[in-house]
UniProtKB/TrEMBL annotation:
One example GO MF annotation: S-adenosylmethionine-dependent methyltransferase activity
Domain of life according to the entry: Bacteria
Keywords associated with the record: Methyltransferase, Transferase
A Pfam family: Methyltransf_11
Metal-binding recorded as keyword: no
Provenance organism: Rhizobium wenxiniae
Xref: SUPFAM superfamilies: S-adenosyl-L-methionine-dependent methyltransferases
GO biological process: methylation
InterPro entries for the chain: Methyltransf_11, SAM-dependent_MTases_sf
Domain (Methyltransferase type) ranges: 47-125
Protein's name according to its UniProt entry: SAM-dependent methyltransferase
Amino acid sequence: MSVRHQDGSAGDANYGVIGKGYVSYRQPDPNIADFIARALGEARTVLNVGAGAGSYEPVDRQVTAVEPSASMRAQRPAHLPVAIDAVAEHLPFSDASFDASMTTFSVHQWSDLAAGLAEMRRVTRGPVLILSCDPKALDRSWLNDYAPEMIAVEARRYPTMGAIADALGQVDILPVPIPLECTDGFGEAYYGRPEKLLEPGARLANSAWSFVDPAIEQRFAETLSRDLTSGVWDARYSALRMQPFFEGSLRLIVSSGSEA
């Protein structure tokens, strides 16, 4: 069964707590949005599952949004449709209702991955898109040197590419390069801007930090601050400050399906 927190959040993270101020740090990045738009193809009706505050929701198509967290639904901008309170594992739609469906940074929150993906496939005629992270590639980031406990948490939470493929059948797994000025503040988005992760709000907008001991987060902030001041971080990673893209763990998984 899905875990429902006080604000309705489903899954392991309580967005009634960590979702406050989320949109200040998690704005859709145009480069990543382009990947999604291309994969949606000619779809006119799109279901967005775990829609959150609406990141990557296309505005040039007819979108139906599903989001169980009241906190996240309340942060959706006025130009986006009001989200339906429902979870991925129980979508309140008929078979083949949508041309395409999508979910971004959400599958690791689901209590039953296979059931949620099966539901997305059931209600979708065409492509099913999943934007997620490959847990086997999370250690590519410098964050693994500073907060290995947090990276380990992420690696446990994110489903493997194999698990997603097993649930959806044949898929294309597309690496998504992360731009230097990425506006979507997941951890790797700051690969060349480490100072941003000294902001508590930036860490709060990444659910993994809510699963580690506060002492670990404090140690991370103190160590990173010290190494930035002393030049240790730049001695190791300064090239990242000028690297236009980072090939990290971000992946777009696409199940093409068959048009009705």
